[in-house]
Design goal:
GO terms for molecular function: hydrolase activity. Pfam families: CT_A_B. This protein is mainly beta. Helices cover about 15% and strands about 35% of the residues. The protein is built from three helices and 20 strands. Strands 12-19-16-17-14-13-20 form a seven-stranded mixed beta barrel. A six-stranded antiparallel β-sheet has the order 7-6-9-4-1-11, with no helix packed on it. A hairpin with a 3-residue loop joins strand 13 and strand 14.
Length: about 300
Amino acid sequence: MSTGRMGLLAVDPGFFTTVQDLGRPGAREFGVPLGGACDRESLAVANALAGNSADCAALELTLRGGLFEARCDLGIALAGAAMAATIVGEDGRRSIAVPSSAWLREGGRIELGRAGRGARTYLATPGGFQTDSWLGSRSAERPVRAGDVLPAGPSRLAARRPADVGAAEAVAELRVLPGPDWALLDDPDAWMHASFRIGVQSNRMGMRLEGGPVAVVPTPERLSAAVTPGAIQAAGGRLIVLGVACGTMGGYPHVAQVVSADLDRLGRLRPGDAVGFRAVSLADARRLDREAREALHARTLRIAAAARDGPS
């Protein structure tokens, strides 16, 4: 990270904060994971509030936000999980909501508490954070550390809270398609009616589910095969749901696949959350994806149009 003056200083970087954009979708053939934001919808909303395109780099704050100080006048925008957020400056303390936009005067701070619901909140700034780029993306798995200065600004944003966008929340059901190894399940219907919980051994690479067991036909000579975010694998009688930072290949049976429209919901789950699954058809999965993309496009256009009005 930069040690320069302009930008946002991480005084307390929180539990696990990283810089994320939309990742590296064109590099999987070289063995490079997709990466990027776990909840791309919330990233897009934060960027729209900041007047950015959807692919600008923002901070992904996981479970607990932390404390950050502006090294210049800096517009900020928040979206995603509901975290308590407070701006601290010479004129005192004031709370801001998620989602919303505001601006910090030089030397001002923003305090972000724990996520009451959901897992990840995004903090964007006009123009995005200008950290190092690699293969066309600023997405990084290295967490931000205390003392890092994230290059950005100067900028200002009006104080706005979109009326039609609430804080992003996780859901208890994920829709799935049968995976290439669906036939290896001893009872394909049994686990679809079971309830699971997100285990503590979960991160951006994937989530281990507690519940089951889920029995599959043994395949001792199994070869690794391509996997993508949302792949559900069975290992040792338990399920693993792969996240955005998963590898490009996997050797466990790939029994199901979370539909693309629910990948952001997957990124909002946190340890202890209950989750179940519902199978849908390929036609339904395509329709859900199309509807989700159209709805997000319309929403971010409305927010971005208001953001262009300039600071109040």
